[in-house]
Amino acid sequence: MILNLDPNFKPFTGQKEIEFKNFIFSGGEPHIKINPDFDVNQAVTITHRLNSFNDLGLLCLTVDALRRMEVKVISLFIPYFPAARQDRVMIKGEPLSVKVYADIINGMQLEKVFVFDAHSEVTPALVNNCEVIPNHTFIQTVIKTIGNDVKLISPDGGALKKIYKVSEFLGGVDVVECSKSRDVKTGKLSGFKVYEDDLQGIDCLIVDDICDGGGTFVGLAEELKSKNAGKLYLAVSHGIFNKGLEVLDCFEKIFTTNSFKDFDEEKVEVVKLKL
Ligand SMILES: O=P(O)(O)OC[C@H]1O[C@@H](O)[C@H](O)[C@@H]1O
C-alpha cells in the first residue's frame, strides 16, 4: 500500500493508494485524516518530497496516525534528503542539520527509508535502515535521449566514485575526471581542472547529484569548452536551480528528476522517478 503525501509525486505506479485529506488548521498547524478503509496488516510505504519543516511535520503526523491505526510495517521514500549537504559543521555555532533530520526520522522506527542519490555517505550512515537508490537508470534514460557517443564528466572528487558505477552500469562509457577548488577563506569556487588535454569536439555529459546555483557547472563548462569539448549536457538528480535556468545557457539540454520539485520549462527534461 502506498500513501503519497505529495499529490504530484507518485513514484510507485500501479500500487493501491491509501486515501487521506490534509489541511492546515487556522493556527497554522498541519493536519491529516487518513481513510481507515484499508487492511492495516499490509505494509505501507509513504512517499514525500521533504523540502521543508512543514513537510516534515506532515510526515510525523502521518506516521503517528498510521501507528495508531495499528499499521505495523511502515517505510518511507524521500527522494531528496533534506540538508544532506549540511553533513559537517564548518563553523562553530552551526547545527549538524542532516543529523537533526535523520534523528527525527529514526524516531519513527521505519522499516526502510529509501533516498534517491544521497549527496554523500553521511546520510545513509545516519539514517537507520536507509537504502540509497542510485542514479543509474536516470542516467541511462538520459543517454538513451542524447546517444552514448559522449563522455561522462565528474565535476569533483565527491562525484567520482558514483560516476564510475554509472559508467559500469552503462557498459563502460568513458569518464573524464575533474576537480574544483574553493577559496579557503570565503569558500567560493575559485577554479576547475579537467584531467584530459584535448576533448576534440567530443560531446560531454556532466553528471552530479544537485544543481543549486549552478556555479559548479557553468565554471566547469567553460573549462570543458577551453579543452575543445563539443556539445555540453547536464544531468543532475536533484534540480534546485535557485538562480534560474538562464545561468545554464551553455548547456544544450539539462536533465533532472522530479525529486525536488516539478518543472514546466522547455530547457529542462524531467525524468520522473518510478520505482
Ligand atoms: O554549484 P551549485 O549548483 O550551487 O552546487 C552544486 C554542487 O555543490 C555540491 O554540493 C553538489 O554535489 C554539486 O557538486
Could you explain how this protein is built, in words?
By secondary structure, the chain is an alpha/beta fold. It has helices at 53-68, 97-106, 122-126, 136-146, 157-169, 215-226, and strands at 2-4, 20-24, 30-34, 44-47, 74-77, 113-116, 130-133, 150-154, 175-182, 189-194, 203-211, 232-239, 253-257, 268-271. It has two domains: 2-133, 3-Layer(aba) Sandwich (Rossmann fold); 136-271, Rossmann fold. The strands form three sheets. It has a seven-stranded mixed β-sheet with strand order 10-9-8-11-12-13-14, sandwiched between helices. Strand 2 (20-24) and strand 3 (30-34) form a beta hairpin. The protein is globular. The site of 5-O-phosphono-beta-D-ribofuranose has 14 residues, from strand 11 and helix 6.
List keywords for this structure.
7-stranded mixed β-sheet; 275 residues; Rossmann fold; binds 5-O-phosphono-beta-D-ribofuranose; alpha/beta; globular; 14 strands; 5-stranded parallel β-sheet; 6 helices; 24% helix
CATH class of the largest domain: Alpha Beta
Task: Report the biggest beta sheet as strand number plus sense, adding barrel if it closes.
Answer: 7 strands, mixed
Write out the distinct hetero groups bound to the structure. 5-O-phosphono-beta-D-ribofuranose
Gap between N and C termini: 13 Å
Shape: globular
Alpha-beta classification? alpha/beta
Instruction: Report the β-strand fraction as a percent range.
Output: 25-35%
**According to CATH, what is the topology of the largest domain?**
Rossmann fold
Strand order of the largest sheet: 10-9-8-11-12-13-14
Backbone CA Rg: 20 Å
Query: How many domain regions?
Result: 2
Average pLDDT figure: 95
How many beta strands in the DSSP annotation? 14
How does CATH name the architecture of the largest domain? 3-Layer(aba) Sandwich
Q: Count the helices. How many? A: 6
Q: Element order, helices and strands?
A: EEEEHEHEHEHEHEEEHEEE
Oligomeric state of the chains in view: single chain
Q: Runs with pLDDT <50, length 5+?
A: none
Estimate percent helicity: 10-25%
